[in-house]
Amino acid sequence: MGFWKLLEVASAPVIQVLLVSLVGVYMATDFCNNLLSADLRKSLNKIVFIAFTPSLIFASFAKSVSLDEMISWWFMPVNIGFTFLIGGILGWIIVKLIKPNLKVEGLIIASCSTGNMGNLPVVIIPAICDEKGGPFGAPSDCRNRALSYSFCSLALGGVFIWTYTYQLMRNTSMRYKAFEAAEILKIPNKELDANIETRLLKQNDGYTVDTENQINFLDHKMNLNLQLVDQCSSIVSINMERSLSHRVMETVGHILAELMSPPTIATFLGFLFGGVEWLRNLIIGQDAPLRVIQESIQMLGDGTLPCITVLLGGNLTEGLQSSSIEPLILICIIIARLFLLPAIGFCVVKVAAKFGLLPLDPLFQYVLVMQYALPPAMNISTMAQLFDVGTEEFSVILLWTYGASTISLTIWSVYLSGHFLN
């Protein structure tokens, strides 16, 4: 498969995303009577979070990942964890160097750490198998393995996205809203300045200041402050005794809240039905007695990507007008996510293969490296709208990173195919 054919394959799913997002752009404009309004986008986003996304995760796990595959592909979740860890470090470095608005700090880290392991691998990776004389074996067998790897990547990626990235976006929202509340409460104290100005005017008019009364007033004020400090210190000492238990309970509460989110529950159930054979045979396969349940869940899951993409287009109409994303931030995210992270990931996979931690299948190694090269996940848009932070800004990030990924994915596909062929 030549460079131009790979460019066509790599750009096809990206162009699909951009074309479907144009539908959302049109529906959010006055030409369509603002059908996709801000309130409707928030409601639809909640439906995606509660119904569509969990269905897609469960269907992908239960159908594509068995217990034997979970054991033999044990390095894949480790590798995905590395993509989040290394990408998060790169995003943190960008935040420290550029010092952007607090509103977009979490978006930068999430964009660098969280790749689109959903529709892009399912389209791109099996298409590589069509290459004649390729390094990945016979096209039919290669395609079956590629689909299994891709769906496993989708399911495992969802675990990290709806735990790590979900918590990251939640914390960003809480910090930003606390910052906004603090800014609102900042009322300038003009009384002191007014008193000083009044005294100066009185001095200029010939009045004298009663220094003794002023000293007495300051002594009285100091005594009150000392009493207040003593009271505060006693309160702090009591609170310090309770702080440890309070923090432990708060941490446990956060963990339980994350575990009870619909995508996390769907991940657990998908693991259960995919790993336990008799449960798997209940809903998977032509002879399964409860096959209709799996087909219904699959039908719901199929609506995830179109809904997210249409919402992306609707958010983009506001993002292009009111976004606070600077060009330097976009350039840094593109370089870190699409070029630096895959280069580091290639080294990680090569070291793992050298120590015998990976299966001998070169396609498996190809998939592991491509997990580092994917553009940001569209689920970040769902979280941004869910927590009402940086929705417009992330739509702009997604637009530019997906445009750049048509070139970067092609470059990495050509390089990796040649590398494994040699």
| The CATH top-level class label | Mainly Alpha
CATH third-tier fold name? Na+/H+ antiporter like fold
What proportion of the residues is helical, as a percent range?
A: over 70%
Query: Which class do the helix and strand fractions yield?
Result: mainly alpha
Beta content: under 5%
Gyration radius from CA atoms, angstroms: 28 Å
Largest sheet: none
- Detail the poorly predicted runs: 189-193, 204-209
Count structural domains.
1
User: Mean of the pLDDT scores?
Assistant: 76
The backbone outline, from C-alpha atoms, is globular
Element order: H for helix, E for strand:
HHHHHHHHHHHHHHHHH
Could you tell me the number of beta strands? 0
User: What is the terminal separation in angstroms?
Assistant: 15 Å
Count of DSSP-assigned helices: 17
Describe what this molecule looks like in 3D:
This protein is mainly alpha-helical and 422 residues long. The chain has one domain: Na+/H+ antiporter like fold (Up-down Bundle). The chain is built from 17 helices and no strands. The protein is globular and about 65 Å long. InterPro entries: Mem_transp_PIN-like, PILS1/3/4/5/7. Keywords: Auxin signaling pathway, Endoplasmic reticulum, Membrane, Transmembrane, Transmembrane helix, Transport.
Topology:
Blueprint: H1 3-27, H2 38-64, H3 67-72, H4 75-98, H5 102-113, H6 119-128, H7 139-185, H8 191-204, H9 211-259, H10 262-275, H11 277-283, H12 291-301, H13 304-322, H14 327-354, H15 362-373, H16 379-387, H17 391-421
Helix pairs in contact: 1-6, 1-13, 1-17, 2-7, 2-10, 2-12, 2-13, 4-5, 4-7, 4-14, 5-7, 5-14, 6-7, 7-15, 7-16, 10-11, 13-17, 14-15, 14-17, 15-17
Function: Involved in cellular auxin homeostasis by regulating auxin metabolism. Regulates intracellular auxin accumulation at the endoplasmic reticulum and thus auxin availability for nuclear auxin signaling.
Keywords: Auxin signaling pathway, Endoplasmic reticulum, Membrane, Transmembrane, Transmembrane helix, Transport
Membrane topology: Multi-pass membrane protein
